[in-house]
Write a structure and sequence with these properties.
- The complex is a heterodimer of chains A (424) and B (444).
- Chain A has 424 residues and is of the alpha/beta class.
- Chain A is built from twelve helices and twelve strands.
- Chain A has helices at residues 5-17, 23-32, 75-80, 105-112, 131-140, 151-159, 208-219, 227-252, 264-277, 298-322, 390-402, 406-410; strands at 53-59, 69-70, 92-93, 99-100, 116-123, 169-172, 189-190, 284-289, 329-335, 355-360, 367-369, 388-389.
- In chain A, strands 1, 5, 6, 7, 8, 9, 10, 11 and 12 form a nine-stranded mixed β-sheet that branches. Chain A has a three-stranded antiparallel β-sheet with strand order 2-4-3.
- In chain A, helix 2 (23-32) runs antiparallel to helix 8 (227-252) and helix 9 (264-277) runs parallel beside helix 10 (298-322).
- The longest helix of chain A has 26 residues, at 227-252.
- The model of chain B has no long low-confidence stretch (mean pLDDT 97).
- Chain B has 23 helices and four strands.
- With 444 residues, chain B is mostly helical.
- Classes of the chains: A alpha/beta (424), B mainly alpha (444).
- At the A-B interface, helix 1, helix 5, strand 7, helix 7 and helix 8 of A face helix 11, helix 19, helix 22 and helix 23 of B.
C-alpha cells in the first residue's frame, strides 16, 4: 500500500516513542532482564592485553593424540598399534623422540618457525571416558563437581566487557559452545554472518523499521519471566544488537587468501577473520571440527581430518598476516580426551585419556612443553597417565592472552604455563 | 485462563504429544475432552491413518535410494505434519533422539528409515523388546561399530553408549562393565547386504562378570540386567518427563513414573499414560514451560496458518535451527531445552516466520492465506485480528503490552478492512510474522 502522510506520521511516532536501536542500550536492557548475578567474584584484569585475541579450536569426538603427536621411538608404540602405527621414517620429527602426524606438515612449519607450543600429556585426575562428561569437564574446568558455567563464560561475565559491546565473544557455529555459557551473560553463536539478521517482508522494504520497532517493544518489556522466556528475551535483544555491526563487517571484508574448499573449519576461521578485520572488539572465539571419534578405520578418517586442520590454520595465519593482525591472535587446540594406546578390533581406538594441546601464534613461546606419558606405564584401563593438568594451560592462556587473573575463573590456583614469549 | 478449558488442554496436549494442531484438529479433538483426546493418541493403531499414507505417496519416489537422505527427511517431516497418530510420530522422534543415530556416519538412507520405522512400530511397546531390536538394527551396528566387535578384538563403542545413554546413565557402570559388556556383544554383526546376523565364530561365549553378576552372558543377558537395574527406570522416565513436560521434575514424580515403568513390565504406553495423565502435565508450570524443538515450531506454525504446501527446503530450515533430522549431532542426540536457543537459532526461527508471512503465492510452497483466515472469521478490527492469531499461536498467552504492540503495528499504517486487499497484504501478514516472533511462540 502507498503510505499517506498521516500514516507516516503515526509510524514515526511509534519509532520515537520507544527509543532507538543503539547496541549499548539494548545490551544494558538485556542485562537488566538477566537473572542471578555473576558466578565469579572480582577478577583482576591486565589492560596491556586488551588487544589480544584468543581462538579456541575444539576437536570433537576425542582426537587420538598418540597418532597426532607420535612417540615414534617408544617400542610399545609399534607393538600396541600393529596396523595403525605410523612408521618412524614417515613421522614429522620435532625432537628425537616425538613428531607430528605426516598430515600436519603445515603445523610442522609453524613449529619450526617457533610459532607453535606443544603441550604433552595433558589431562586431569580420575579421567572420565564419556564424550559428554569429559567435554563438560574441559568446558567448565571443573573435573570434580558438576558446574554449568564455562571457563570463558565466567571470564566474559566477570570482565564487564559485555556491557557496551554486544560481541565481546563469538561462538562460531549454530550451537553455543558451553565453554561460553553462564546463566548471567550470553555469548552469541554465529553460524554465518550473512544469515545473522532479522528478515522482513521484501515486498514492503519501508515496513522493516516498524517491524523491528514492534519486536523491540515486545522484547524490551521487563517482567518476572520464566528462565526459558528470559533466555529467549535476552538472546533476541543481544542478537539484534550484534546484527547490524556484523552486517557492516560482512560488507567490507575482502581477502586475497584462498581458504581451502570443503573444509568446515576453514569456513569457521574465515568468519573469525572477518570479525577480526571489522575491529568490533571481539576478543574470544570458539571454532570446532568433529569426526574424531575413530573407533573404526581410524587411519583414513583421522589423516583426512588432520590434513584439514593444518590447511585451515595455515590459511587463517596467512589471512592474519595479510591484515597485520598476526601478533594479536593466539590459537589453542583441545579435544575431550585422547584415545586408548592399544588399537581395537576395528582398526580404530577406543576412548582414552591424556592428549597433546597445540598453542599457535606469532608471539607464542614455541617448543615442546612437559614430557610424553610413558607407553609402558599405563593405568589399569590401558590408558596414558597425564603429566600436565589442562587447567595449567588455561591458566597460562588467561594470564598471557586474555589478561585475567586465572585463580577466580578456574576456581583454584594452577601453575600457569608460559604461553607467550617474555618479550612479547 | 490457560489449561482450564478443554480446548486449551487439548491444544497443550497436541503441542507436547504431537506437533501442534490446525484449527480443524482442535475442533475435532476438543469435544473428546482431555481424557478422550489422551485415549485417542495413546492408541494410534485404532486411528485410521490411510489418508496420510495417500497424501505422502507422491513423496516416496526416492525413498529406496540409499543416497537420497534428504528425501527421507522430507517424507518424515510431512508425516509429522499430517499424521492422525501424533503420539506415535512424537515417540518415534523421541527414540530417534534417545538412540540417536546419524546418517553422517551410517551413510545409508534406507537403513536410517528402517531404524525410524522400528521406533514407529515399537515406540509405545515394551522397552526391553525395543532395546533388543535396536541392538540388532543395522544402522545402530554401523553407527556404534558393533559390527566390528569380535572375540579377542573388542570394540567398546556400543557397550559404552548402551549403558551411558540408552539405559542406566552415567555413574551407574564401571570401565570394567564396559569391557565385559563389549565381550558379550561380540558377534552381533552385519552380512554383506547390511542384514543383521549373529556370527557364532566371532562371539566370545566365555564367562563375564557384569554389574556384579557372573555368567556366560550374551547380548540379551546384558540388556536384561540393564533394563532391570533401578537406575534405568529413573533414567528413562526422567528423560521422558523432561522431554514431554518440563525440566527438573520433583523426585516423587519420578518415583511414580519409575514405579509404573517397572510394574508394567517396561510398557511404554503405560508410562506415557501416567506421564500425560498425571497432575504435572496440566499444571501452570507445564503451560508454555518448555522451549519448542525446531520441528514443533515449524510444524506448529504450518498447522496454525493452515499451510498445505511445504517445500523440500523445510528440512534446511530445520537444520539451520539446529535440528537436522536423521543427523543428530552425536550419540547423545540433541541437547534440547535451552540449548535450542542462541542468537543464530533465534534469527532462524524468526526468519522462518517471515517466510510463512510472505507466502502469498497459492501456486508455490508455503502459501499462507492470512486474508482468507481473517475473512473466514469475519475479523476486520486490529484487536480482533491480533486476538485471533494470538489465540491460535500462543493460546492468548502474551502480556497486554505485547498485544498492544501488535495492535499499534497494524494501526500505524491505517485502517484494516476485510475488503482492503492491500492492508491485509501488508498489515495482517506483518502482524502474523511478529506474532510468530513473540517469546511465547518459541515455547511449547
Amino acid at each position: 500500500m502507498a503510505f499517506n502522510r498521516r500514516s507516516l506520521l503515526t509510524r514515526g511516532a511509534l519509532l520515537v516513542a520507544s527509543g532507538f536501536l543503539a547496541p549499548s542500550f539494548i545490551t544494558r536492557t538485556a542485562m537488566a532482564l538477566g537473572g542471578p548475578t555473576s558466578v565469579v567474584g572480582p577478577v583482576t584484569l591486565d589492560p596491556s592485553k586488551k588487544n589480544q585475541i584468543l581462538v579456541v579450536l575444539q576437536l570433537s569426538g576425542g582426537n587420538d593424540g598418540i597418532n597426532t603427536l607420535i612417540p615414534f621411538t617408544d617400542p610399545n608404540y609399534a607393538l600396541l598399534r600393529p596396523t595403525l602405527g605410523v612408521a618412524p621414517a614417515d613421522v614429522l620429527h620435532l625432537t628425537d623422540s616425538v613428531g607430528l602426524n605426516p598430515n600436519l606438515t603445515k603445523l610442522k612449519d609453524l613449529y619450526d618457525q617457533g610459532k607453535m607450543a606443544v603441550v604433552q600429556g595433558v589431562g586431569y585426575p580420575n579421567p572420565n571416558r564419556s564424550h559428554f562428561r569429559s567435554m563438560d569437564i574441559w568446558h567448565s574446568a571443573s573435573p570434580d563437581t558438576f558446574e554449568r558455567s564455562g571457563w570463558l563464560g565466567r571470564y566474559v561475565a566477570a570482565c564487564q566487557c559485555a556491557q557496551d559491546n554486544a560481541l565481546p565473544a563469538i561462538s562460531v557455529g549454530d550451537q553455543l559452545n558451553t565453554m561460553f555459557w553462564t546463566d548471567t551473560t550470553l555469548v552469541p553463536a554465529v553460524a554465518s554472518i550473512g544469515a545473522f539478521s532479522f528478515l522482513t517482508d521484501t515486498k514492503y522494504k519501508n515496513d522493516r523499521a516498524f517491524q523491528m520497532q514492534t519486536l523491540q517493544n515486545i522484547y524490551n518489556q521487563a517482567g518476572n519471566w520464566s528462565s526459558s522466556e528470559s533466555l529467549i528475551r535476552r538472546g533476541t535483544l543481544q542478537a539484534l544488537a550484534g546484527s547490524d555491526e556484523l552486517q557492516k563487517v560482512a560488507a567490507t571484508y575482502q581477502t586475497p587468501v584462498k581458504y581451502p574448499a570443503n573444509n568446515g573449519l576453514a569456513g569457521q576461521l574465515k568468519t573469525v577473520a572477518q570479525v577480526i578485520a571489522g575491529n568490533l572488539g571481539t576478543r574470544l572465539f570458539s571454532v570446532s571440527m568433529g569426526g574424531f571419534d575413530t573407533h573404526t578405520n581410524q587411519k583414513v578418517n583421522q589423516d583426512k581430518l588432520l590434513g584439514q586442520l593444518g590447511d585451515a590454520i595455515d590459511a587463517f595465519m596467512q589471512d592474519l598476516a595479510n591484515m597485520k593482525m598476526q601478533d594479536d591472535v593466539t590459537i589453542m587446540t583441545f579435544s575431550e580426551f585422547g584415545r586408548r594406546v592399544k588399537q581395537n578390533g576395528g582398526n580404530g581406538t577406543d576412548h582414552g585419556t591424556a592428549e597433546p594441546m597445540f598453542i599457535i601464534g606469532n608471539k607464542v613461546q614455541g617448543g615442546m612443553y612437559g614430557t610424553y606419558p610413558s607407553l609402558s606405564d599405563l593405568d589399569n584401563n590401558g590408558d596414558l597417565k597425564f603429566n600436565a593438568d589442562f587447567r595449567s594451560v588455561y591458566a597460562g592462556i588467561l594470564r598471557d592472552v586474555v589478561g585475567a587473573d586465572p585463580a577466580p575463573i578456574l576456581g583454584g590456583t594452577f601453575d600457569p604455563i608460559a604461553v607467550l614469549r617474555a618479550a612479547a | 485462563m490457560a489449561l482450564d478449558n478443554p480446548r486449551s488442554q487439548v491444544a497443550h496436549l497436541l503441542r507436547r504429544a504431537g506437533f501442534g494442531a490446525t484449527e480443524a484438529e482442535l475442533d475435532q479433538y476438543t469435544p473428546l475432552g482431555f481424557a478422550g483426546a489422551l485415549d485417542r493418541i495413546l492408541n494410534p493403531e485404532q486411528v485410521d491413518d490411510s489418508a496420510t499414507d495417500q497424501l505422502l505417496a507422491p513423496l516416496t519416489t526416492d525413498l529406496g535410494d540409499p543416497k537420497k537422505i534428504e528425501a527421507a527427511k522430507f517424507w518424515w517431516f510431512n508425516r509429522m505434519l499430517y499424521t492422525q497418530r501424533p503420539l506415535q510420530e512424537k515417540m518415534t522422534l523421541f527414540w530417534h533422539n534417545h538412540f540417536a543415530t546419524a546418517n553422517s556416519k551410517v551413510n545409508n538412507s534406507v537403513l536410517m528409515q528402517q531404524q525410524i520405522q522400528l521406533f514407529r512400530d515399537n515406540g509405545l511397546g515394551n522397552f526391553e523388546t525395543l532395546l533388543q531390536k535396536v541392538t540388532r538394527d543395522p544402522a545402530t551396528l554401523i553407527w556404534l561399530d558393533n559390527r566390528l566387535n569380535r572375540k579377542g578384538a573388542t570394540n567398546e563403542n556400543f557397550a559404552r553408549e548402551v549403558q551411558e545413554l540408552f539405559t542406566v546413565g552415567i555413574g551407574n557402570y564401571t570401565e570394567q562393565d564396559i569391557k565385559e559388556a563389549a565381550r558379550a556383544f561380540t558377534g552381533h554383526t552385519l552380512d554383506k547386504n547390511a542384514k543383521y546376523i549373529f556370527n557364532k565364530n566371532q562371539h566370545d561365549a566365555g564367562v563375564k562378570t557384569f554389574q556384579g553378576q557372573t555368567g556366560n552372558f550374551d547380548a540379551d543377558d546384558i540388556l536384561a540386567i540393564l533394563v532391570r537395574n533401578p537406575a534405568t527406570a529413573r533414567f528413562i522416565t526422567t528423560k521422558l518427563f523432561t522431554y514431554f513436560v518440563y525440566d527438573n521434575p520433583d523426585p516423587s514424580t519420578i518415583d511414580r513414573l519409575a514405579g509404573t515403568f517397572v510394574s508394567s513390565n517396561f510398557d511404554m504406553r503405560s508410562v506415557m499414560r501416567d506421564l500425560f495423565g498425571g497432575p504435572e502435565f496440566l499444571s501452570p508450570q507445564a503451560f508454555h514451560g518448555q522451549i519448542k524443538q525446531p520441528v514443533e515450531l515449524v510444524a506448529g506454525s504450518l498447522k496454525a496458518l493452515n499451510v498445505q504446501n511445504v517445500g523440500p527446503d523445510v528440512t534446511q530450515f530445520l537444520r539451520r535451527m539446529g535440528q537436522d533430522l536423521l543427523n543428530p549431532p552425536d550419540v547423545s542426540g540433541w541437547k534440547g531445552g535451552s540449548a535450542w536457543i542462541n542468537a543464530t537459532t533465534l534469527f532462524e526461527r524468526f526468519n522462518w516466520g517471515n517466510r510463512l508471512a510472505m507466502g502469498r503465492d497459492a501456486t508455490k510452497p508455503y502459501f499462507a492465506d492470512v486474508p482468507a483466515q481473517l475473512q473466514w472469521h469475519n475479523l476486520s478490527s486490529p484487536e480482533g485480528s491480533v486476538d485471533y492469531y494470538l489465540g491460535l499461536l500462543v493460546d492468548g498467552d502474551v502480556t497486554p503490552e505485547a498485544r498492544q504492540a501488535l495492535v499499534d503495528y497494524i494501526n500505524a499504517s491505517g485502517p484494516l478492512a476485510l475488503d482492503n486487499g492491500a492492508a491485509l497484504d501488508l498489515q495482517a501478514r506483518g502482524m502474523v510474522h511478529l506474532a510468530l516472533a513473540t517469546p511465547t511462540f518459541q515455547l511449547a
